[in-house]
Amino acid sequence: MINAIVKNNDRIAVIALPRDRMKLASDLISIGIRTLAYELSYSDDDDSPVSVTFYGNSDFDNEVIAAVSVGTTLSQVNLVTDLYFSLSPEEQKEVLSQIQEIEDKSINDILSVVMKYPHEDIEKNVPDSFGMQGMGCV
Q1: What digits encode the pLDDT tens for the residues 71-130?
Q2: In whole angstroms, what is the distance from residue 25 CA to residue 4 CA?
Q3: CA 14 remoteness from chain centre
Q4: How far apart are the first and last CA of the chain?
Q5: Pick from 29, 36, 25: which is nearest to 8 by CA?
Q6: pLDDT digits (tens, 9 = 90+) for 13-67
Q7: 3-state SS string for 18-81
Q8: Full strand arrangement of the beta sheet holding 11-17
């Protein structure tokens, strides 16, 4: 499970992903952030009052975190984890194997691999703001 550490000045939330988007919004509001998760992105700017970082322990977590770069949003990482954990254990192993073979991967590369598997209940709820048009999920 990937954890997002979201800081707003001196207030911190540690959020286990995947997280329902309404609960995620509530978590952000609890530390004074009124911005939507798809507008919050990872940044290497230590001076920013709002920051998002990620940590995890599993092989999948480490692959996703390694793919996070400046501009990757909290929503993108939440979506990747949501889609991955909706798969069967066998499918998860296949996805992990495929992801591990990609050099210099991005979060979109991981989304592309995960989206090769059916996610009917999730696909129809993915908003256009994820930039997922043309990937079979909107």
Answers
A1: 999 999 999 999 999 999 999 999 999 999 999 999 999 999 999 998 765 555 455 544
A2: 13
A3: 14
A4: 25
A5: 29
A6: 999 999 998 999 999 999 999 999 999 999 877 788 899 999 999 999 999 999 9
A7: CCCHHHHHHHHHHCCCCCCHHHCECCCCCCCCEEEEEECCCHHHHHHHHHCCCCCEHHHHHHHH
A8: 11-17, 2-8, 50-55
- For residue 124, the 8-state DSSP code is T
Closest by CA to 2, choosing from 22, 23, 16, is 16
Bridge partners of 12?
7
Q: Which residues pair with 60 in a beta bridge?
A: none
Would you give the DSSP letter of residue 128? Answer: G
Q: What is the pTM of this model?
A: 0.85
Q: 64: number of CA atoms within 13 Å, CB side?
A: 34
Task: At 131, list the tokens.
Answer: 């930039």
